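Appendix C: a fully annotated inverse folding record. The material below is reproduced so that readers can follow the format used throughout the book. The structure is listed first as tokens, followed by the designed sequence.
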């Protein structure tokens, strides 16, 4: 079709996992028909001008300017189609409750969603069980059961469910939790994070004893030097990538509806803090398509960006309306708060187009300014929808009351865009490029081939540096750092993830978080030779920056990442 131009890689992903199939497993729609199905279904709730919105939604998806999270693309229009990617479920301290949530998680996974849980309400290992006079297995043992269930519930054969498991730093089983993934085999379907409070961080900084408490009674069980626990956390993260941290006080500082309860968990990749049973749907704008070009000089197209934000917010609010809710509890709280998460992808490619190095103050400043614009326009769009459709039902109990009418308790999230950025042929989320060349999977089992990033190639041509020799080196090494004769300024613009100091990774996270009401999913990538102290520094700085969470990955460390990125060799 004119206008829809997909890479071979995107086409293959859609064909294998997104397009509707008949009973024999053959795809029965084209990618264009998939976008049409989604646009029709999502605009179906419009009372007036449904046709107009269908075209708008279809246009921005088929031009790869905006894509909703994967479950919306896969399931829109299907009977019982679950469209949200993110859920949080409670884990209460009874066998009945533990297995009820496990069953609910399996159902959510089966239909394409991911689930987060805080296991801190469970009594510790060895605690007495009054009914059986036996002893509890503790939260880590139950997490392993959740993990095993996830392993065997494929999401409609498309992908495996992802989980976030949190245990608070004052739970008596915290050390077992910190070390659980060190064996390289346990909890492979979980990202794990320690639930951190400001009290704990102060105890670390002042070198105090830290008291571990029974969650049922609140009584002290034992104590451990806070610094020792911190060392265990950061050294294990250095070795395996896990655990990350979630900063619970920062999350609750921004909880838009504190009257409905404290937030104790996020979804699997951390970008959405949610109340128990709450769900959220996401969508991301492709920044590499929000530009104007004049003689090789690129600028952000603010008008186009604003229009896409307004349509994106409307799209995501509509998703809440046409969504199918498996569980009545999820339906109740989701409809009360109407949380959505509009985010971004293609940030690194935008910077490359504009010739701004990722590791620069200029980039960090632009990130803040850009996200402030996204937030402002998103809030305007949500306020307009409140005028048209009414505020979210718990608005009178929210921080927006009484001045600001809003349709949605939250509007923005920076998701990892692990698959949709590949469909949109751009860089992941707000991440720098991992390499300037990729090994693309072979089409339908064909030979895989090496390709350089399209925007890098275009810019190098425009700047007059492109030649066969340069291409050969980039294909081999993935970077331009060893290329002689290339000015330092140019090398800096095309630096890749492991060449960028962690300080700049984190400054980008802070810049986007500053104007993101939910949270920012970001992996702080380290080269293999990073030291455990670097991890301690980055975790501490993340807290000082007031972030909501932090995740690192050191190149070559033991753990396989839960979410495989599709096109990085
Ligand atoms: N997610 C999931 N399983 C996966 C990938 C993602 O359940 O294999 C959920 C998870 O909650 C994650 C969210 O989808 O935080 C968004 O992830 P991402 O942006 O990578 O998803 P995409 O829409 O690109 O598939």
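Designed amino acids, in order:
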């Amino acid at each position: 079709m004119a206008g829809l131009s997909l890479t071979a890689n995107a086409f293959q992903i859609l064909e294998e996992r997104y397009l509707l199939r008949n009973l024999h497993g053959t795809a029965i729609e084209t990618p264009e028909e998939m976008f049409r199905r989604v646009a029709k279904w999502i605009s179906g709730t419009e009372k007036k001008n449904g046709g107009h919105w269908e075209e708008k939604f279809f246009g921005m998806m088929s031009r790869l300017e905006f894509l909703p999270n994967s479950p919306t693309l896969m399931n829109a229009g299907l009977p019982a189609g679950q469209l949200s990617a993110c859920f949080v479920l409670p884990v209460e301290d009874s066998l009945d409750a533990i297995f009820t949530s496990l069953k609910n998680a399996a159902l959510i996974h089966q239909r394409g969603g991911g689930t987060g849980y805080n296991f801190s309400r469970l009594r510790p290992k060895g605690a007495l069980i009054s009914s059986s006079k036996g002893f509890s297995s503790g939260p880590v043992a139950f997490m392993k059961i959740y993990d095993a269930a996830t392993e065997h519930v494929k999401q409609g054969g498309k992908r495996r469910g992802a989980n976030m498991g949190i245990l608070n730093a004052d739970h008596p089983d915290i050390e077992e939790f910190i070390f659980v993934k060190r064996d390289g085999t346990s909890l492979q379907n979980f990202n794990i994070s320690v639930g951190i409070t400001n009290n704990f961080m102060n105890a670390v900084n002042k070198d105090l004893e830290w008291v571990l408490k029974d969650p049922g009674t609140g009584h002290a069980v034992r104590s451990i030097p806070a610094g020792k626990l911190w060392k265990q956390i950061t050294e294990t993260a250095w070795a395996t990538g896990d655990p990350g941290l979630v900063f619970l006080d920062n999350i609750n500082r921004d909880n838009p509806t504190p009257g409905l309860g404290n937030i104790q968990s996020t979804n699997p990749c951390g970008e959405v803090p949610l109340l128990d049973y709450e769900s959220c749907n996401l969508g991301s704008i492709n920044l590499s398509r929000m530009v104007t070009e004049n003689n090789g000089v690129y600028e952000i197209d603010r008008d186009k960006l604003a229009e896409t934000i307004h349509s994106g917010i409307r799209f995501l609010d509509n998703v809440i309306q046409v969504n199918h809710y498996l569980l009545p509890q999820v339906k109740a709280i989701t409809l009360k708060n109407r949380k959505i998460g509009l985010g971004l992808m293609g940030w690194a490619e935008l910077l490359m187009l504009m010739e701004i190095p990722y590791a620069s103050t200029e980039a960090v400043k632009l990130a803040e300014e850009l996200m402030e614009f996204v937030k402002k326009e998103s809030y305007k769009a949500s306020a307009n929808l409140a005028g048209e459709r009414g505020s979210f039902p718990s608005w009178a109990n929210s921080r927006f009351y009484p001045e600001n009418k809003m349709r949605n308790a939250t509007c923005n999230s920076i998701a990892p865009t692990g698959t949709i950025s590949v469909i949109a042929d751009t860089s992941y989320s707000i991440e720098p490029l991992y390499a300037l060349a990729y090994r693309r999977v072979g089409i339908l089992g064909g030979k895989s081939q090496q390709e350089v990033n399209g925007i890098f190639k275009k810019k190098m041509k425009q700047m007059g540096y492109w030649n066969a020799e340069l291409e050969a080196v980039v294909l081999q090494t993935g970077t331009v750092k060893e290329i002689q004769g290339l000015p330092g300024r140019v090398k800096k613009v095309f630096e890749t993830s492991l060449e960028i100091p962690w300080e700049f990774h984190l400054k980008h996270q802070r810049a986007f978080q500053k104007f993101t009401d939910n949270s920012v999913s970001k992996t702080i990538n380290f080269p293999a030779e990073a030291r455990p102290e670097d991890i301690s520094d980055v975790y501490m700085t993340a807290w000082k920056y007031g972030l909501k969470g932090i995740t690192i990955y050191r190149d070559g460390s033991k753990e396989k990442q839960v979410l495989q990125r599709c096109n990085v060799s």
